[in-house]
Design brief:
homodimer; 379 residues; alpha/beta; eight-stranded mixed sheet; 8 strands; elongated; binds adenosine-5'-triphosphate; binds magnesium ion
């Protein structure tokens, strides 16, 4: 499939090539939230220990993105080193340059759950000017990068001070299209009375319902995710159930993660197939000698009709085609359609083989997973 | 003020004349919700007794609008009789004709709280065809009538089956502009586990946040509002607090209701004043003999400019003016501007007196109310 991607210049149009480590990496859990909601303490709670480089406190403390990963020896790896490590799935972060890489580090840490999951701690989202001016990199773009590559996104809120700033709203909008990966945590819920908690929780859902456009309700876990005893005991049983559920949700990730990756692979393979046909089709429509430029312009303008023609000839569902407008934009970027590659019977067979045989087999391998008892592995 | 309304044909443009009983009536609490959520049982719970004509049951039971009002003797009054009773605030319902009046009745009932509040029970909102076809009147229009005249609207949900049908969504949309009067009740909350309750409550707020466009969160009371003991005891204390709060919310109505009515009166008086100036202004701009029609058309077309002129001369805030487009529509309805009344110094003085002296005095009368201890009057 990689051969097809190269030959038809897939990368110029859609997504960068996927590397081996993108498949092998452990599922990644991203923590997002306003400052002081307890993101760092949450990771500590899940690991049942502190991790190298962590800082916990009431003011904005965590000032960088920290990937907390398993290793026998505790160690901090600076962002620049981490992004060139081909064993780790962070090479893509090079694109954000030094401004970001000095605010990124790896925290190697010997904790059992890290053998299965990697956590990414983030700096708290601030409000107003501070969020925009105080950072040496584009927080939104970096967050977007992590959002796309994470297997679960934990959105934390503090039950004591629930103000959803505009900046936080923008951050939530970055989650668009990845809502299925989001879990909301209403943290420090033991610090207020039951009636207050219900008001805060209701207000949270009310606002989230307005910002998140999906009809499906996000799953919220309510509790106090750190190692201290509860203040308001009335809800002990409920909090404990919620915390247990969240942990088994986390522990189910490894399996879901492979399924999700295969799912994405299928999506990509279908797109690659369609892309191949589009490129070959456009080439075939080009005149041999003169009038290339006009022909290209016409083809771009009537791209939707070309898509429909391909759909008819190749029997590919229209849903597999890329966005017309985006494709038109790319094609307009001074490309010479006559240099595109024609159709190749061999490669057509290859991609069909991938879609019909390889991927379904891969799926079967992962599908009936060894059954796990979440309780026995509870941290 | 009534004289001004007549002279300047206020009713043709804005709202019907207000009658004495519109001011004297007790605050009215309207119950809305899908069928079987417990609306009728709720009234029974508040009254601490059954009321004449009530029917409670798991299928759709209440098939009419029932105004539950105080009287020493229990009695049912049919809708037709009730709508002609000038002592009661239901004369406006005549407009809906017999199709509705046969589905409307008064339930006179000797219960203490009815001396202060009138409750209106309604038929449950059904889903699909049944809601549209099964009724001999326009449910939406009638509901709208009650919504506008109620002092509080209780929107009930059943924690066991929270499906917000499209019909119910439309019903919620009828509340637009009256969100401040709405209280939500999540009823039968004791019948499910705490975790389930939290999911249902979250889903409710999520959906409501999408349908109700105000940023302010609606107040929700969670509990089980009938005379049976709780099934799930874990929440006893919380439910009891919620139920107490709701009742004190209800008992605060009488005072708020007068304030609200004065508030509406002030709004109306300001609109009457502006209306008077507009009518007189339009008359003054009419030619004496010929070209009336063209002049009228020009005036309607340039109405916004005329408003601005009045604003400048009379020093009336632009916010007091009616909607330009709506006013243009009314004025186009074959009216002869030259028949409008000119300005009258006496009436100008009257309305200023109303706005500057009478209404503020009225407000003072109601403002510092005799303080009430809600607990001592708890049913
Ligand atoms: N469950 C909890 N209940 C009460 N307090 C908590 C809880 N978790 C953390 N805290 C306290 O809240 C404060 C902030 O915690 P922490 O530093 O973990 O937040 P953070 O979200 O990582 O903040 P930042 O964005 O600034 O890094 C600390 O004082 C911590 O002790
Ligand atoms: N708090 C409660 N907990 C459990 N069940 C309840 C509660 N309140 C009422 N019920 C039961 O729910 C059913 C419906 O009650 P009710 O008739 O009061 O609902 P309704 O909203 O008035 O329905 P309709 O719209 O059909 O008139 C009845 O069987 C009643 O006993
Ligand atoms: Mg932190
Ligand atoms: Mg009923």
């Amino acid at each position: 499939m990689l051969e097809i991607e190269r030959r038809y210049r897939f990368e110029d149009f859609h997504a960068p090539v996927m590397r081996g480590c993108d498949f092998d990496a452990k599922p990644m859990v991203l923590l997002l939230g306003q400052y002081s909601v307890g993101k760092t303490s949450f990771i500590e709670y899940i690991l049942k220990r502190q991790f190298p480089g962590e800082r916990v406190g009431p003011e904005p403390t965590t000032d960088r993105f920290i990937a907390v990963m398993y290793d026998k020896e505790d160690q901090i790896i600076p962002g620049n080193a981490l992004s060139v490590d081909i064993e780790k799935p962070f090479h893509g972060l090079n694109a954000f340059g030094n401004g970001f890489l000095t605010k990124f580090e790896g925290s190697l840490c010997n904790a059992e759950i890290l053998e299965r999951i990697t956590f990414v701690d983030t700096p708290g989202i601030l409000s107003g000017e501070k969020q925009r001016l105080g950072r040496s990199y584009d927080f939104a773009e970096v967050t977007q990068w992590f959002v796309q590559r994470s297997d679960m996104i934990l959105l934390l809120f503090d039950a004591h001070k629930l103000d959803i700033s505009d900046e936080f709203k923008s951050a939530i909008e970055l989650l668009k299209g990845n809502e299925d990966k989001v879990r909301v945590i209403l943290n420090k819920a033991d610090g207020i009375s039951t009636q207050q908690l219900m008001r805060v929780y209701g207000a949270l859902m009310w606002s989230l319902g307005k910002v998140v456009k999906t009809p499906e309700v996000l799953r919220v876990y309510i509790g106090s995710f750190w190692d201290q005893p509860y203040q308001n005991d009335e809800f002990r049983k409920f909090f404990e159930l919620e915390q247990r559920d969240l942990i088994s949700d986390l522990l189910q990730l490894p399996r879901n993660s492979s399924v999700r990756k295969i799912n994405e692979l299928v999506k990509r393979a279908r797109l690659v197939r369609t892309h191949m046909y589009i490129m070959a089709h456009l080439k075939s429509k080009m005149p041999v000698l003169i009038g290339k430029e006009t022909a290209q312009k016409e083809l771009i303008k009537g791209l939707l009709n070309e898509f429909k023609e391909i759909e008819r000839i190749k029997k590919i569902p229209l849903g597999d085609f890329p966005d017309v407008a985006a494709m038109q934009q790319r094609l307009a970027l001074n490309m010479d359609f006559s240099t595109f590659q024609p159709e190749s019977e061999r490669l057509t067979k290859t991609i069909e083989q991938v879609l019909q045989i390889d991927l379904p087999q891969l799926m079967k391998l992962v599908q009936p997973p060894k059954s796990e008892d979440p309780k026995s592995t509870n941290p």
